[in-house]
Amino acid sequence: MLRPLCLFGYAASVAAQFGIEHTQYGTSPPVYPSPQISGTGGWGAALEKAQAFLAELTTEEKAQIVTGTAGPCVGNIGPISRLNFTGLCLQDGPLAIRQAIYVSVFSAGLSTAASWDRPLARQRGAYMGAEFKGKGAHVALGPVVGPLGRSPFGGRNWEGFSPDSYLSGVLVEESVMGIQSVGVQACTKHYILNEQETQRNPSVDSNGTQIEAVSSNVDDKTMHETYLWPFANAVRAGTASVMCSYNRINGSYGCQNSKTMNGLLKDELGFQGYVMSDWLATHTGVAAIEAGLDMDMPGGIGFTTPTPTYFGANITTAVNNGTLSMDRVDDMVLRVMTPYFHLNQDADYPPIDGYTQRLGFFGPGPYPFNYTIGNIVDVRQAQHAQLIRDLGAAGTVLLKNSNGTLPLKAPKNIGVFGNDAADFTRGEYSLALSGAGLADGNYDIGTLAVGGGSGTGRFPYVVSPLEAIKARGRSYGADVQYITDNQFITAGGLAALAPTPEVCIVFLKSWASEGADRTTLIAEWNSTAVVNMTAALCNNTIVVLHGAAPNTMPWRNNPNVTAILAAHMPGQESGNSIADILWGDVDPSGRLPYTVANGESDYSKNLVNSTALATTTDPNAWQSDFVEGNLIDYKEFDARNASVAFEFGFGLSYTTFNISNLQIQVSSSNASRTPNPAAPIQPGGNVELWATLATVSVNVSNTGTVSGATVPQLYLSYPKEANAPVRSLRGFEKVALSPGTSGTLNFPLTRRDLSYWDTTAQQWTLPTGGIKVYAGFSSRNLPLQGTLNV
Ligand SMILES: *[C@@H]1O[C@H](CO)[C@@H](O)[C@H](O)[C@H]1NC(C)=O
Ligand SMILES: *[C@@H]1O[C@H](CO)[C@@H](O)[C@H](O)[C@H]1NC(C)=O
Ligand SMILES: *[C@@H]1O[C@H](CO)[C@@H](O)[C@H](O)[C@H]1NC(C)=O
Ligand SMILES: *[C@@H]1O[C@H](CO)[C@@H](O)[C@H](O)[C@H]1NC(C)=O
Ligand SMILES: *[C@@H]1O[C@H](CO)[C@@H](O)[C@H](O)[C@H]1NC(C)=O
Ligand SMILES: *[C@@H]1O[C@H](CO)[C@@H](O)[C@H](O)[C@H]1NC(C)=O
Ligand SMILES: *[C@@H]1O[C@H](CO)[C@@H](O)[C@H](O)[C@H]1NC(C)=O
Ligand SMILES: *[C@@H]1O[C@H](CO)[C@@H](O)[C@H](O)[C@H]1NC(C)=O
Ligand SMILES: *[C@@H]1O[C@H](CO)[C@@H](O)[C@H](O)[C@H]1NC(C)=O
Ligand SMILES: *[C@@H]1O[C@H](CO)[C@@H](O)[C@H](O)[C@H]1NC(C)=O
Ligand SMILES: *[C@@H]1O[C@H](CO)[C@@H](O)[C@H](O)[C@H]1NC(C)=O
Ligand SMILES: *[C@@H]1O[C@H](CO)[C@@H](O)[C@H](O)[C@H]1NC(C)=O
């Protein structure tokens, strides 16, 4: 009882400190005018090309460049053939080009996060980018760092990486660089505080009154230290675009909030690209434009006659009647066109794939503009499938392995159980959530290899767990008995097995999709009973979880459950990825990018919802106060010193590792407490924030008998002045070692890594006094300690 009260006390004190009483948020501070693009950060030459292009445009054409229209893609900017501009094709999503055939379905952001593997994250971005480009898509609508994962129930958390802002920051940076390395624009989304699906958009009550979208109310310190942090990495990586979100922030809609767009993104972070709206997230015209919105999506989407848009012809009218300056419109155009020229998209870009429009919601046309449509092309490559298989395995976390169960030693009689083991039973696009209810991806029998909604993919095939295990078994003459109908299992179906398998592998799934939040953190479809009943029969039961995370595991201490694998969302090679781990071809090197609590009620739900809200008549009723500040996921469990089932950063290997010899090198002692305000602002913010001020190194050795990989992690504990969490991740590196070998790892620490956000100074500030340094293998296994004075 004491601990929750403790947390409540903390929340109350944060609330007092920042005056968080949602009625007091009311407004977001006005920040005007909208900062203009300067071309800094290496975009100067492209800006000049964009300026030359702009000089040729009429006002109507300028409006056209910043307003979506009906076309073959999910988002379309119409062409201007006079200028050889073929328009822009924008396509979902963060793990595949969704609206296409002959494409790969990659591992989700969640699996990428669980891999803690920078090179794999970069490679994934580059391979996905290559597929978008091959299909003629100029803009990939991803990666995702909003939601960050404030609530473990968040329906879209899996599209992004981790509730830890540092881990998400590193991985979004790698992803943006990967996608853009092949000449495709990344659109980092959803900006910002888009932390719940419930009431993400306005609704209408029974009397026709508009009930506004949920307002995420957050203080300035939490904004910088937790939610804005990974967006800063994305901007630093050169993201061409940022998508503003559906929710309100301090009462003001995400796509018309001048503080977040003009203030934080364009001014403080020096963002040079364009802000596009999420689909139908624009609620005003001139006001949104002045607040920093550069592109309306999907815009005026009628086919032959455009439907209304706050942009389009309204921009022309507003310029002509003097309410909107031509300067601002010109800046919008320059922000859209500069990344296009910077990534050489004006030179021989592939045409839009010939199948694209058949799958889109605009239908086959005709459209208001003619687009360049090419042949139907296959953009898959053998190395893409291999990467997906590797990343699926690398993003699998081994949580329990008693009795030396894993890796398997050629068992001759294998049992496979659970509805997630089975092949798809509703086809390759069945995970997409259809409004018609025909294709609700949360159906019973069929494996869950990624999540649903706009972030899903159209599978070319899926390797189901059962298919891969049968193939393995056949290769050495093993029998596989399987039952994939959970209801049949819970009704007693296991009684039919003969003989009892040497090993029973149970596959469970946890559904999540855009448009709804999770209602439980326990895998669906009677999973607890399925595990209980299997374990009652089989004293060597391995449980594998696919789908959304975190999940609680009521059966985790059952002695007959000898191994547990959190296998996340591996993508099309799902079965091969898990077989590689089960048979030990690949050492499990995944680590938890979130906390697994003992039980569901141990989490702070951090989700606003109720029956009363569902029927409210108060337009302003949906308020979500982020009173917990930075204390989400492990930072919250650490703050109340609560026991957990498996902590953030945890994961087992088939070998053992030792960590030793922590060394701290300060490159610049007595550095000024804040960055020089006169230093240039480049994409990512004041350049001094990214200077390395210290480097920590450790030695890691493989002390076991097989080759493997591990992820040494570095956490910092700041002095009281910083008002920071107990510990914060500030370094990690995956390292592969053969038995008996060791290596030295360096963790460079930038000024931002070592600072806290001082709300009075409005600056990242180095604390005075020593910063405690911890290194080890998880957030709670930190054998090495030191103190850093900078
Ligand atoms: C939201 O309101 C809080 C409290 O007044 C303030 O600290 C913060 O800067 C505001 N943020 C935005 C984006 O409006
Ligand atoms: C458009 O392309 C054609 C053919 O390559 C070229 O002759 C012409 O100069 C280009 N026009 C512009 C405005 O770039
Ligand atoms: C301009 O915006 C208004 C809403 O403010 C809308 O009713 C109107 O249809 C828009 N005009 C065009 C041409 O889209
Ligand atoms: C100017 O045009 C805009 C866009 O149509 C409109 O919203 C606004 O009311 C107009 N203002 C005046 C003064 O006519
Ligand atoms: C599109 O192409 C068709 C056929 O060539 C032509 O009739 C039509 O005018 C074109 N539409 C536009 C908007 O250019
Ligand atoms: C596995 O280990 C647990 C605890 O160490 C033990 O209780 C159980 O009997 C073992 N099971 C088998 C099949 O050896
Ligand atoms: C759970 O099992 C019960 C009893 O076997 C069955 O009636 C129910 O439909 C099952 N629920 C799900 C979600 O499978
Ligand atoms: C599963 O087993 C646990 C522990 O034996 C028990 O508490 C729980 O009620 C069982 N749940 C189901 C659904 O069978
Ligand atoms: C473990 O398995 C054995 C059969 O090997 C069974 O007798 C026992 O009841 C099982 N225990 C649990 C907790 O399911
Ligand atoms: C586990 O089950 C096997 C056969 O099902 C049996 O031979 C063995 O004794 C059991 N071990 C334990 C510890 O229950
Ligand atoms: C939100 O509340 C409604 C109404 O009480 C309920 O139907 C829905 O399941 C809830 N959503 C979540 C994610 O808890
Ligand atoms: C709708 O309006 C009626 C009459 O004014 C009122 O009694 C009722 O409470 C309203 N209901 C809602 C949902 O706003």
Quickly list its features.
790 residues, alpha/beta, six-stranded mixed beta sheet, 22 helices, 33 strands, disordered N terminus, binds 2-acetamido-2-deoxy-beta-D-glucopyranose
Describe the 3D structure.
By secondary structure, this protein is α/β, with parallel strands linked by helices. The protein has 22 helices and 33 strands. Strands 2-3-4-5-9-12 form a six-stranded mixed beta sheet. It has a six-stranded mixed beta sheet with strand order 14-19-18-17-15-16, with helices on both faces. Helix 3 packs across helix 13 and helix 5 crosses helix 15. The longest helix is centred in the first third of the chain and has 17 residues, at 2-18. One 2-acetamido-2-deoxy-beta-D-glucopyranose (NAG) is lined by residues 486-487, 490-491, 525-526.
